Amino acid sequence: MTTINRRLFIKSTGAAAALSLAAPLVARAAADPIKVGGLHDLSGALDSIGIPMNQVFQMAIKEINDAGGLLGRPVEGVIYDPQSNMSLYSQYATQMAVKDRVAVVMGGITSASRETIRPIFHRFKTLYFYNTQYEGGVCDRNEITLGTTPAQTVRRVIPYAMNLFGKRVYTIAADYNYGHITSAWVKRFVEENGGEVIETEFFPLDVSQFGSTISKIQAAKPDFVLSAMVGTSHLGFYRQWAGAGMKSQIPIVSTVFGAGPEQVILTPEEGNGILSCFGYYEAVDNPTNTAFLARVKAAYPDNTPTISEISEVTYEGMMIWADAVREAGSIEREALWEVMESGKTYDLPAGKVSIDPKTHHAIRDVYIAELQDQVFQIKEAFPQSQPEDTQMVCDLVADPEANKHYEISL
């Protein structure tokens, strides 16, 4: 899937060229298009996550245009591939805001990429949607944050896992903001539920060998391993864990496994039994999701992406933005903020979603699921979970000029 998509992208645009999408020539002649930016990793360390995000981004643009566009104008996608490179993220974000003059941007995966581009879009008053599960704490009225935070997911999965497996936890995590802050939340929620984190280890994103860590875990004998590992290289842990015969001895719970297509990359023997918690799984049972997955299959019959929270939320971002444009009759930020801050609830594939006016984060349904035979099976649902962590530090109603990422003190 990755190779096919990258080839199609490069063939039509070049590695750093803008791509025009789904706007009929006649319509363009009649009205200037509304440009929307897509800034997702189509190559590099996180392309397995970025490519599905880009696919649903393009699908959303086509759906909007097939329904008549917005304000009598077609919507045109401007897409760049930052290649998981922060310098390219900065370069393309500036180009989108200054040269392309896009109305809105959907983009960024890691917290590092978000904190590279968020200040640029804030400075140039370019509305920005961050559609990725992350560690919480962004307080910026210019950013709409639709992915889940630890108060919505880690808070749920920790007591669930402790009730199943026990109270002694060994944490392994990616060595950047997300891993460090999430690990602190893990410690807090474990201790609140009467447990103990016996060890926490951090690993750079390019580390792929975990033999010594597996030996340390074997010696420590935790009741379960809590993984906040990110990206393709870190899949090596799950494979080596199964290869060492540990999967049947010590369960794995993850705050991030399934953000990309990990569940179909690992074999059932490697992945069965992993628990995770997200704001979306393909198994969500509602008519909106059934229809959404059918449209994804129809749009990409030969390279159908596995849809995770991150890709589904990218679709959400486009639909929420488009709805706000229609209701406001404008693409101006201030008019769109007023619509999105009104408490409106959106019926989306993941369930019910609304925007918290204090934080511009999503209030959303959250699910715990277990992987079996490369398919996540939902075990429990938590309706309308609040981003309580970010609410601790952010109040955009009181301070609409805020522009900061807080590392929430625990």
Would you mind describing this structure in some detail?
It contains 15 helices and 16 strands. The relative contact order is 0.14. It is globular. By secondary structure, it is α/β, with parallel strands linked by helices. Strands 7, 8, 9, 10, 11, 12, 13, 14 and 15 form a nine-stranded mixed β-sheet that branches. The protein has a five-stranded parallel β-sheet with strand order 2-1-3-4-6, with helices on both faces. Strands 5-16 form a two-stranded antiparallel sheet. It has two domains: 247 residues, Rossmann fold, CATH 3.40.50.2300; 101 residues, Response regulator (Rossmann fold, 3-Layer(aba) Sandwich), CATH 3.40.50. The N terminus is likely disordered. The longest helix is centred in the N-terminal third of the chain and has 20 residues. Helix 7 links the parallel strand 7 and strand 8.
The assigned structural class equals: alpha/beta
CATH homologous superfamily heading of the largest domain: Response regulator
The structural domain count equals 2
CATH class of the largest domain: Alpha Beta
What portion of residues belong to β-strands?
15-25%
Number of strands: 16
Radius of gyration using CA atoms only: 21 Å
